[in-house]
Amino acid sequence: MEKVSLPSNQEHTIDVLIHKNPALDRPLLESAVAFIAKAHKGQLRKSGMPYMEHPFEVAKILADFKLDTPAVLAGLLHDVVEDTEYSLEELETLFGKETAFMVDAVTKISAAQARSNKTYQKAETYRKLIAAMAENPQVIMIKIADRLHNMRTLNYMKPEKRKLIAQETLDIYVPLTHRFGLYRIKSELEDLSFKYTNPDEYQKIVSYLIESKEERESFINSKVIEPIRIKMFLEDFDCTIQGRTKNIYSIYNKTQRRKCDVSDIFDIFAVRIIVETVSECYLALGYIHNLWAPLQSRFKDYIATPKPNLYQSIHTTVIGNENRVVEVQIRTKDMDLTAEKGFAAHWAYKLETQRSGEELEWLNQMAKLQSEISDSAEFLEFLNTDLKHESITVFTPKGDSIELPLGATVLDFAFAIHTNLGFHCIGAKINNEAFGIDKELANGVTVQILKSPDQIPSPDWLEIVKSEKAKQELRRWMRSSMLRQAQILGKEIWERDLRLLRIPENRYPEAKAIIEHFKVPNLHMFYERLGQGEMPISALHEFLQPFASKENFERVMTDSPFRFLTQNPSDGKTDLPVEVGNDQNFLIHYATCCSPIPGDPIVGILVPKRGIEVHHVKCEHIKDYPKERLIAVEWNKNSSQSFALHLKIDTDNRNGITLDILSALNSTNMTLDRMSVTSGKYSGRIRLVLKAFRKEQVLQLMEKIQNISGVRRVVKS
Predict the structure, then answer these.
(1) Whole-number Å distance between alpha carbons of 251 and 633
(2) How many domains does the chain have?
(3) From residue 391, how far is each of 185, 364, 388, 424 by CA, in Å?
(4) Is pTM beyond 0.70 here?
(5) Could you tell me if residue 371 is inside a domain?
(6) Are residues 620 and 504 in the same domain?
(7) Which residues are known to be catalytic?
(8) Which of 48, 108, 403, 490 is deepest in the core (most CB within 10 A)?
(9) What angle do CA 109, 113, 119 make, to 5 degrees?
(10) pLDDT in tens, 245-277
């Protein structure tokens, strides 16, 4: 490439980049610097400095991370397409396809961030990031470097703009830096964001740290580092010892979690011990525990079970001198490099911790899942879970490790292994002890899933799982099941109306006529819409009127849905209403306003997108719905489903009355979900929420409770 002549200040920039990463191609860098000097000529930043300052600083951050020449070039050129007259094609011709791709990716991400719809904007920004990162992970480094320098110069922006950008940084870039192990950048972004999102709390902590700096540093050096140094010298153990104060934002989070003032936080500093080998890490750990007593609850071995981003270290918290809590981190030099530079370090260094690209497996999974989630709010929920700062690692019986979000359950683990295993999961053995599907997993346990071919998912499972893979598979299964159930229910409603109108089979409407009248592509869609409550019964009657006799049509039009419960057609065919209360059906819902249970007289209401809502026939809310949406329903006589029952009991204020009521409940096979008791000077009120199966059970229980001494009244509520 032709030699480019640059001003001294630009030559100095090249020197700095080469010093940070000697492997960079100097002629290409010189060409790029000359190009952006021309492209951004006359442009100024909010600070009043030439715009070129920004791409220079971005490139320096990338060079410091030892990124290759195409990535550093993309850092220099990342604003050219967006802010100048030059095209992406010109960049590709001059600097290559790889650099042009990264510039294009960063430009598209910036465009997504500029949208006005905040939820959509945030989701689309993430989508662009993930799509670009999946193709070339260095894109995230360019965008993070861009954001880091912008945050360093944020004070030149207007106050309202500062806060918006700072919050976006906390929402998007801080979780990503954590996920990719860029802890040094994460801490700086957190503190810079915190400075503008909560300036009062930020200044309060800064002032405290300044005031206590001398005392704190004296304690770290004389009471922590020096005793460790002496111990290691006596043991003839070679290591590097460092002390540091934790970043401002993490200190603030401690005050919030512990609900205390910053002056009450003692573990705001940490000591790091750097050694050569893994075995020396554990030897150093033993020496530290010889010195001070450890807090077992806060011991974490990330060497034995590394974080998904390859972070490895031993964390132990000890009660040091003056009874002050100190965190000690122990790691090798390679581990320390990974902790400082994250997965980016593995592109530039041959590290013993490298494990065949495992640090990017999470990214591949994210790219696959994000393409399957179209709703922006749902996508953000997925990210908020998946980008959480904490995760756990659990093991299969074969020793394979599975990463799950903090709080994940047995069910999450089953879905992580295989979707069908999740669908049929009934529990698990955790370290050889049996637990149910909702058992929360601890870090490092071994899990063996128990399954049954008869098990099928329940809507309640969405409340149990924490991982997005499990939620996605459950939602997909439920949507598919709901469509199948809607078609079955819709066909049942349709055939029921044919029988009610007593239309002979030879006069049944043809499929073509049904499809054309209801404007649906096929009969399956017709049944589906009908089963989902999107068509009122009156629409069916209107269509079927020409096919029924005048007498039968008028009879049906004047009949109430309640009569259909006992009415049979004269032709001898059974005219059963829609049956409810047996199998799990996502389109049958039981109204909470009247809480019907098997044995109660009931009626259904067709509710669009929900299906049928079942009410007690005396429910006062039925009048709120048009008559054409009422539909006859009946309890399945073989129902084994339990239903929520609410009882309200007014009592005298008598000692032991609560125990008497619970004793009466114990004599039934109903289970108690919740109970509340309030009492005054002379009276009391007890509320019970029970699981009941039949009306007869409820009546027997209510009679038993009513006969208890001191019970004034017992009613369903």
Answers:
(1) 60
(2) 5
(3) 20, 18, 7, 25
(4) no
(5) no
(6) yes
(7) 82-83
(8) 490
(9) 120
(10) 888 998 888 888 878 888 777 667 789 999 999
